[in-house]
């Protein structure tokens, strides 16, 4: 017994005529009759009363069987519809990891909004994670897409889309001597400053941007605090515990006691990327990747 035979029986029970049912199903009448006979043989009872001079009708057993068959067909059609929608990415779940600064640039919110507008019934799960953690989470299937800062190396099974390249600025407490003027700050003037940096891995965190500023300014950086994210960075800057190198997009946050100043004589840039598995099979995830590509601010 298969779903096709149930559909054939349903058509005959509605049309009460093999010829009309065969035309509706776009098959030969003999093939239709054969499939109904095979179904009757399999379940061990007659389902249809056949007379040459009168319409075909269901037997008592056929009425009972057809009621159950219609329910099965409805369930199958619903499952079939769900399967097709999953295949188009209209349904499904997209698990996203992100560094907090990805929200400040507007790329993650914009991509999420655009995706939800086009596929409102797809589910999105967002989880803040450090860049290094996202890489292992991608390979392990814990997340499907990661928004993070560029890594020195990535597994071969991951693809990366560059999203954003923005200048690094300096965040200072508003009464800091270097904050008195709104002019850009020379890198050398930051010598002796205590820096607050997010993330604990000096290889991939913002401490490398501090190191580059120090290199161009001709001094050795002092890392006073390593904290979890840029919100904590700004809190410590506001407390007067140090200064920070931050992406320009962080300027959307305006704590009362913190100001931002550009660098005058050194070009240091922060980048943001999105990564995903090369062999991704989920249509919903692939749809989100397409949205990310459209929203990338890189040429």
UniProtKB/TrEMBL annotation:
<keyword id="KW-0238">DNA-binding</keyword>
<keyword id="KW-0812">Transmembrane</keyword>
<dbReference type="InterPro" id="IPR036390">
    <property type="entry name" value="WH_DNA-bd_sf"/>
</dbReference>
<keyword id="KW-0804">Transcription</keyword>
<keyword id="KW-1133">Transmembrane helix</keyword>
<dbReference type="InterPro" id="IPR005119">
    <property type="entry name" value="LysR_subst-bd"/>
</dbReference>
<feature type="domain" description="HTH lysR-type">
    <location>
        <begin position="1"/>
        <end position="59"/>
    </location>
</feature>
<dbReference type="Pfam" id="PF00126">
    <property type="entry name" value="HTH_1"/>
</dbReference>
<dbReference type="GO" id="GO:0003700">
    <property type="term" value="F:DNA-binding transcription factor activity"/>
</dbReference>
<comment type="similarity">
    <text>Belongs to the LysR transcriptional regulatory family.</text>
</comment>
<dbReference type="GO" id="GO:0003677">
    <property type="term" value="F:DNA binding"/>
</dbReference>
<protein>
    <submittedName>
        <fullName>LysR family transcriptional regulator</fullName>
    </submittedName>
</protein>
<dbReference type="GO" id="GO:0032993">
    <property type="term" value="C:protein-DNA complex"/>
</dbReference>
<dbReference type="InterPro" id="IPR000847">
    <property type="entry name" value="LysR_HTH_N"/>
</dbReference>
<keyword id="KW-0805">Transcription regulation</keyword>
<dbReference type="InterPro" id="IPR036388">
    <property type="entry name" value="WH-like_DNA-bd_sf"/>
</dbReference>
<feature type="transmembrane region" description="Helical">
    <location>
        <begin position="230"/>
        <end position="253"/>
    </location>
</feature>
<dbReference type="Pfam" id="PF03466">
    <property type="entry name" value="LysR_substrate"/>
</dbReference>
<keyword id="KW-0472">Membrane</keyword>
